[in-house]
From TrEMBL:
Protein name according to UniProt: Porin
Record InterPro entries: Gram-neg_bact_OMP, Porin_dom_sf
Lineage: Bacteria, Pseudomonadati, Pseudomonadota, Gammaproteobacteria, Alteromonadales
Entry keywords, A to Z: Signal
Organism: Colwellia asteriadis
Keyword Signal in record: yes
Gene3D superfamilies reported for this sequence: Porin
Length: 214
């Protein structure tokens, strides 16, 4: 159930999701990991303000009941909470500069590569693009998901210890053939760190391609 309201420069949203769903997950870099996340009823709200000077400001909050079964143990149901704020400058794809920043604080929302619940975690997403009049765009991006948990001796197999950190940078150049088709070259520089110290999540990559949107 969802309700949206637009009033002048504001946009409000409220939603409620009634569910009892099991999600099966496989960890990163850990082939034998198999965890089941039980996701129950959730609700949330959001507000977006279109500010002067082509700025956009937004705030969102969501909470749900979740429990995790992994490594032969099952957690009690806890609140999965997320609060996120964003800032944007100018629409994406327009000539000139576009910037988008999202900052998120989470509780019991994500798992690390070992299938452990991150009691506290934070995320940052930064995307910036500059489109020139010759239809070439230069793009830089940054993505971070950091475990801020403290180790729990009560549930050592389910409590994350704060060592997990997914972090990478993106550099890209695009040529817009038209508004629906572009050619691109993109490079990813990865500085990620797994909770499993014996393995590495970091993977640098460079690729070229084309994309058509419709």
């Amino acid at each position: 159930m969802q309700y949206k309201l637009n009033y002048q420069q504001f946009s409000f949203g409220v939603q409620y999701l009634a569910s009892d769903e099991n999600l099966h997950m496989v960890g990163e870099g850990v082939k034998d990991l198999s965890a089941v996340l039980n996701f129950e009823n959730s609700y949330g709200f959001s507000v977006i303000y279109q500010a002067p000077f082509e700025l956009g400001l937004g705030l969102a909050y969501n909470v749900a009941k979740v429990s995790l079964a992994a490594n032969g143990l099952k957690t009690e149901a806890v609140d999965d909470e997320l609060i996120s704020a964003h800032l944007t400058y100018r629409p994406y794809g327009s000539l000139g500069l576009h910037v988008a920043l999202v900052v998120t604080e989470m509780k019991n929302h994500d798992i690390n590569d070992l299938g452990q619940v991150m009691a506290k975690s934070s995320g940052i997403e930064l995307f910036s693009a500059y489109r020139f009049e010759n239809d070439i765009s230069l793009i830089i991006g940054y993505n971070s998901l950091k475990d801020n948990s403290s180790f729990s001796s009560a549930h050592p197999d389910l409590g994350a210890d704060g060592s997990y950190h997914k972090e990478y940078f993106i550099l890209s150049a695009k040529y817009h053939w038209d508004e629906d088709f572009y050619l691109y070259i993109e490079s990813k520089r990865d500085r990620s760190k797994l909770a499993a110290q014996t393995q590495s999540l970091a993977e640098n990559a460079t690729g070229i391609g084309m994309m058509f949107t419709f």
